[in-house]
């Protein structure tokens, strides 16, 4: 099923994001985690492309989730280090695996290195999207959006213009980078709509489970942690159990407001852990916040 069609039902679409584990045992545990989360009726599951694993592993896990577990699945694919010939090969493998949905990303360069466009490669994600459309690949394409602007982009206006170009090239829905202030998401959506972007913009939520970890991730992504939440996290520093409860409570309130005010769904960045996501979505369903 093409993910864009899920957003046409009028019901909130919930999705979970995972990354390929480093070991076979980790992969088994991941599939067990996804199998348990199936009870929460996700619209789809996405699998990232990481530098630690070749793209074939992302394709393999995505196909297994779709075929073995019966959950719609989306493969992330980046083009930061590959030229057109290699990307053509990779997307041929995705097509042959009968994967219908792809999150098309430029991706990050190797750690601590500036981005350098590969020979015969792509500088921006919109170029990758245009390439896929020109090649007539049959995928439903998603793209990334940044409520607080892409860290490499000098201005929010330029970032929005880049996003509009990506949509015009053929992206059918957008998933945001993580954020902890809903006002930033709503302001971003308002600006996007005013700029003529009409595709679904799904908020990306990363429940906090570890203080140091989330501070590092937020710093890399440019996500601002509000002062009140930071005070609570400082009080829980070194106590992962307390941080987990703070993270669950905060993310649950975030999701309640996002859905109440019209967000098309929630995309959970799980970091391959299920307890926080399970608790949040179960609470939302039990409270009849969603149907």
Short note summarizing the structure:
With 291 residues, the protein is of the alpha/beta class. The chain has a single domain, classed as TIM Barrel. The chain contains 11 helices and 8 strands.
Description:
- This protein has 291 residues and is α/β, with parallel strands linked by helices.
- The protein has one domain: Alpha-Beta Barrel (TIM Barrel), CATH 3.20.20.
- The chain is 46% helix and 15% strand.
- The protein contains eleven helices and eight strands.
- Strands 1-2-3-4-5-6-7-8 form an eight-stranded parallel β-barrel, surrounded by four helices.
- Helix 3 (55-68) links the parallel strand 2 and strand 3 (73-78).
- Helix 10 crosses helix 11.
- It is globular and about 50 Å long.
- The model has no long low-confidence stretch (mean pLDDT 93).
Chain-wise SSE layout:
Elements (H helix, E strand, L loop, with lengths): L2 H4 L6 E6 L5 H14 L6 E4 L7 H14 L4 E6 L5 H13 L4 E5 L19 H10 L5 E6 L10 H14 L3 E6 L3 H13 L6 E5 L5 H11 L5 H9 L4 H21 L4 E5 L5 H12 L5
Parallel strand pairs: 1-2, 1-8, 2-3, 3-4, 4-5, 5-6, 6-7, 7-8
Taking all residues together, what is the mean pLDDT? 93
Number of helices: 11
Radius of gyration: 18 Å
Helix content: 40-55%
Q: Name the poorly predicted regions.
A: none
CATH class: Alpha Beta
- At CATH's second level, what is the architecture? Alpha-Beta Barrel
- In N-to-C order, the SSE pattern is HEHEHEHEHEHEHEHHHEH
């Amino acid at each position: 099923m093409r993910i864009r069609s899920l957003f046409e039902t009028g019901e909130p679409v919930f999705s979970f994001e995972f990354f390929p584990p480093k070991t076979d045992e980790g992969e088994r545990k991941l599939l067990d985690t996804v199998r348990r989360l199936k009870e929460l009726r996700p619209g789809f599951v996405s699998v990232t492309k990481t530098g630690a694993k070749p793209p074939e592993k992302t394709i393999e896990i995505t196909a297994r989730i779709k075929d073995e577990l019966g959950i719609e699945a989306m493969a992330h694919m980046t083009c930061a280090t590959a030229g057109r010939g290699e990307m053509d090969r990779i997307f041929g493998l995705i097509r042959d695996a009968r994967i219908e949905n792809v999150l098309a990303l430029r991706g990050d360069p190797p750690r601590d290195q500036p981005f350098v466009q590969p020979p015969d490669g792509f500088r921006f994600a919109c170029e990758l999207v245009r390439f896929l459309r020109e090649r007539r690949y049959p995928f439903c394409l998603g793209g990334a959006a940044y409520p607080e602007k892409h860290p490499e982009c000098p201005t929010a206006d330029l970032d929005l213009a880049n996003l509009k170009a990506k949509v015009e090239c053929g992206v059918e829905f957008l998933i945001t980078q993580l954020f902890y202030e809903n006002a930033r998401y709503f302001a971003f959506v308002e600006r996007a709509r005013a700029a003529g972007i009409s595709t679904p913009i799904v908020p990306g939520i990363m429940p906090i489970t570890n203080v140091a970890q989330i501070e590092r991730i937020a710093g890399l992504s440019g996500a601002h942690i509000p002062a009140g939440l930071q005070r609570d996290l400082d009080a829980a520093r070194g106590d992962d159990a307390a941080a987990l409860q703070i993270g669950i409570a905060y993310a649950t309130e975030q999701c309640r407001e996002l859905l109440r005010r019209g967000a098309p769904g929630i995309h959970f960045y799980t970091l391959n852990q299920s307890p926080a996501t399970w608790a949040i979505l179960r609470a939302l369903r039990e409270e009849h916040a969603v149907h």
